[in-house]
């Protein structure tokens, strides 16, 4: 057998009665020692791995369908199918199967000749006659209906009845009786024909389907199924299929076989979805072959259309032509939507070729045009097509938009068109916006971005997105939180001003979607989104929404802040503390009052996270302190007192560095630099001097408490001058006053000369966030620093 003839696709039927593609390979029939018999082997054409190894069981019923399919069951719920590229290859393997089972290759179904144990029927010889069918006459319809209904519980009897119906051309005779009964208005006969045709469908045989669904018979089959005995009046399915449902050829299809296949598939799908009742638990497997019939029809349609490049080129040309009228363009878009839906039946490599063909023909530029149209139906269909493309290959879409940015303005970029459609969704529930937001999240998700030796898709695309698209996404958020957009209502007896965002329900929903996407960016785009938030002061604008009358929107704003704080990023923490960005959160909590609701719980959780952060910091500090003490205790005392004491000048430098780092924090007590250490035998004298100095300092502190000035600031008086800090005679030192004011200091170069502290009294301000410290830095600071760390709440 040539390679082409042996080429097959392997399918298995899943729990949802859908065929799953297991791969493409080459089939052979050979004796397998391990299985003790002739077997079907399929090896993958890509790597030669074994896709299928199945022993040809003498008792297994194999079915040959549509000249290129062989279907069988290996277990109760395990169905297999081989789809051959050529009929000759299918015929050759079929002959091998029939040879093993001792069957005539002319049959379409090999039979299991052992009856089920429940029926207690002994094995029948191959020469035993098939089921005898009653003559096809009006007065025999009831008997025929009883026969068809009775065999459904027995697999072997279903097989025999199917062969009898096929060999005697019985179905066409039944459909002729249908026409007679309908002309005579023979209601009883029509009810019997409904039971007969429904029972034949449940025989689940492809050979019978090919007869019933042919152009000659299918409308009569639909007619029989209109006369359900349980209904008072018959349905009008034929009227719908012939008059209401119109087949529209957006571009004339010249291939008659393709046109016939499209008609057949639509009608069979209608029979399965609309006409046939939902099968019971005992009947759910009866229509598996019908599902397969539709599946393989769709595969064939897509393959035939894909191979006709002239047809697809004409469709794209009309779709992008400005002269095309709106109705025609709507039909073209709907055709592509259905075309992409059918493509989901293709195996992965064929689906890959399918979408690459569409991309080559210009599907993405075409979508850019139709997604900006006013017609809601066209935009909806275009969105569905775009979702198929993003789901298949987000990298393909990203590559297109980055190339497009080099030639087009930001306003007409495909992603910006998608964002604008999300923003302008007229649906009160924003159904389309939700779908588009999900597609945008897929496109900006670093998890599905590729990294190669030559380039990194993540960095390139995120640079593009934040430079060309982010401003479009955040425009509604910034517009609805700007000062001229919001109303400021002064609250009587309060020092704060309420900033109320004028958001209606639909606007609030849109802002919530945008915040959800921005929160995703905070979690996955650390560098790019951080720069954007800092440059645009975005968190402050987002927190304006804490005053929204829509609680879900306030929660979205709070969630955005919570994600930022959860990163424990030093830059974010400084940004939040310097900007006093906890104030809107505290105000929202106070405005919420005593109500115990989701907003209350979310705010509490936020500060509980901060509290746990501080607690963890304190625990690490105490553990490190204990460790250092243990180290110090292990060193001889003489070494501790001399060699490991640091010079006072080094301590002064440490103090100066600390003041430079924390000059914006609130004032704290400063430990004066200690004298250079002396030997242990001088300790008593040193201690007495230390106590005298301490008492003098305490009396001076009482006299020099800060006093509020008329300007509202605080006045600090220090008795330690610059000369005293440098070791000069303290009796000659002069009192230096430091007046707090918004103005900057003189910038004196003397160390420890003056200390200027700004004291703020803003309502709602809290202690700033603190990162977990770096272990090595903590070790050095805790060992040498002459000060203590500020306490929480100081």
Commentary on this structure:
This protein is of the alpha+beta class. The chain has 33 helices and twelve strands. α5 runs antiparallel to α6 and α13 (326-343) packs parallel to α16 (376-392). The longest helix is centred in the last third of the chain and has 36 residues, at 598-633. It is elongated and about 125 Å long. Residues 112-129, 488-500, 642-646, 648-652, 658-684 and 702-794 have low confidence and may be disordered.
Descriptive tags:
3-stranded antiparallel beta sheet; 53% helix; 794 residues; 7-stranded antiparallel beta sheet; disordered C terminus; 12 strands; alpha+beta
Oligomeric state of the chains present here: single chain
Percent of residues in beta strands: 5-15%
What is the tally of beta strands?
12
Rg, alpha carbons:
41 Å
Shape: elongated
């Amino acid at each position: 057998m040539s390679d082409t003839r042996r080429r097959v696709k392997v399918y298995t039927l899943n729990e949802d009665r859908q065929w799953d593609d297991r791969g493409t390979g080459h089939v052979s029939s050979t004796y397998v020692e391990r299985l003790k018999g002739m077997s079907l082997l399929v090896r993958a054409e890509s790597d030669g791995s074994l896709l299928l190894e199945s022993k040809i069981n003498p008792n297994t019923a194999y079915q040959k369908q549509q000249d290129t399919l062989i279907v069988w069951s290996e277990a109760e719920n395990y169905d297999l199918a081989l789809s051959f590229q050529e009929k000759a290859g299918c015929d050759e393997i079929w002959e091998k199967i029939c040879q093993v089972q001792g069957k005539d290759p002319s049959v379409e179904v090999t039979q299991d000749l052992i009856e089920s144990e429940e029926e207690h029927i002994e094995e029948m010889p191959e020469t035993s006659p098939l089921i005898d069918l009653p003559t096809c006459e009006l007065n025999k319809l009831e008997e025929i209906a009883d026969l068809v209904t009775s065999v459904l519980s027995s697999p072997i009897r279903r097989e025999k009845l199917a062969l009898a119906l096929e060999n005697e051309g019985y179905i066409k005779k039944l459909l002729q009786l249908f026409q007679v009964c309908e002309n005579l208005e023979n209601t009883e006969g029509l009810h019997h024909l409904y039971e007969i045709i429904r029972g034949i469908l449940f025989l689940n045989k492809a050979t019978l389907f090919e007869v019933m669904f042919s152009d000659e018979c299918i409308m009569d089959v639909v007619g029989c199924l209109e006369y359900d005995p349980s209904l008072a009046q018959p349905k009008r399915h034929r009227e719908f299929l012939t008059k209401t449902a119109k087949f529209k050829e957006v571009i004339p299809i010249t291939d008659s076989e393709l046109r016939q296949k499209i008609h057949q598939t639509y009608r069979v799908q209608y029979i399965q979805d609309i006409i046939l009742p939902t099968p019971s638990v005992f009947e759910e497997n009866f229509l598996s072959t019908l599902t397969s019939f539709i599946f393989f029809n769709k595969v064939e349609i897509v393959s035939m259309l894909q191979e006709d490049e002239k047809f697809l080129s004409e469709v794209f040309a009309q779709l992008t032509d400005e002269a095309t009228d709106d109705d025609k363009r709507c039909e073209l878009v709907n055709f592509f939507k259905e075309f992409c839906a059918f493509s989901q039946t293709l195996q992965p490599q064929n689906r890959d070729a399918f979408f690459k063909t569409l991309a080559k023909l210009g599907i993405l530029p075409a979508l850019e045009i139709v997604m900006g149209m006013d017609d809601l139906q066209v935009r909806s269909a275009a969105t569905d097509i775009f979702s198929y493309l993003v789901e298949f290959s987000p990298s393909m879409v990203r590559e297109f938009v980055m190339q497009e940015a080099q030639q087009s303005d930001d306003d007409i970029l495909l992603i910006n068109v998608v964002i604008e459609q999300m923003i302008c969704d007229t649906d009160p529930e924003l159904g389309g916006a939700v779908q588009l937001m999900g597609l945008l999240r897929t496109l900006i998700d670093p998890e599905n971005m590729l990294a190669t030796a030559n380039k990194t898709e993540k960095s390139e695309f995120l640079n593009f997105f934040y430079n060309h698209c982010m401003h479009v996404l955040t425009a509604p958020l910034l517009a609805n939180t700007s000062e001229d957009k919001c109303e400021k209502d002064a609250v009587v007896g309060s020092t704060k001003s309420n900033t109320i965002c004028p958001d209606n329900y639909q606007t609030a929903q849109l802002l919530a979607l945008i915040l959800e996407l921005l929160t995703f960016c905070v979690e996955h785009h650390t560098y790019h989104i951080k720069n954007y938030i800092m440059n645009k002061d975005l968190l402050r604008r987002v927190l304006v929404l804490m005053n929204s009358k829509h609680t879900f929107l306030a929660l979205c704003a709070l969630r955005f802040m919570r994600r930022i704080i959860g990163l424990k990023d030093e830059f974010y923490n400084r940004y939040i503390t310097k900007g006093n960005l906890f104030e809107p959160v505290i105000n929202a909590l106070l405005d919420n009052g005593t109500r115990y609701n989701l907003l209350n719980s979310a705010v509490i959780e936020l500060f509980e996270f901060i509290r746990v952060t501080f607690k963890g910091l304190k625990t690490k500090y105490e553990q490190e302190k204990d460790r250092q003490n243990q180290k110090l205790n292990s060193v001889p005392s003489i070494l501790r007192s001399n060699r490991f004491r640091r010079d006072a000048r080094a301590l002064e430098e440490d103090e100066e560095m600390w003041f430079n780092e924390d000059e914006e924090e609130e004032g704290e007590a400063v430990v004066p630099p200690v004298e250079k250490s002396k030997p242990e035998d001088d300790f008593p004298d040193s201690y007495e001097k230390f106590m005298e100095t301490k008492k003098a300092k305490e009396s001076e502190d009482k006299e020099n408490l800060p006093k509020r000035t008329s300007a509202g600031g605080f006045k600090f008086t220090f008795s330690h001058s610059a000369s005293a800090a440098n070791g000069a005679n303290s009796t000659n030192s002069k009192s230096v006053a430091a007046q707090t004011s918004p103005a900057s200091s003189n910038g004196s170069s003397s160390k420890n000369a003056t200390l200027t502290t700004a004291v703020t009294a803003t309502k709602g301000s809290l202690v700033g966030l603190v990162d977990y410290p770096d272990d090595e830095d903590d070790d050095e600071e805790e060992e040498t620093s002459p000060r203590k760390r500020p306490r929480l709440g100081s």
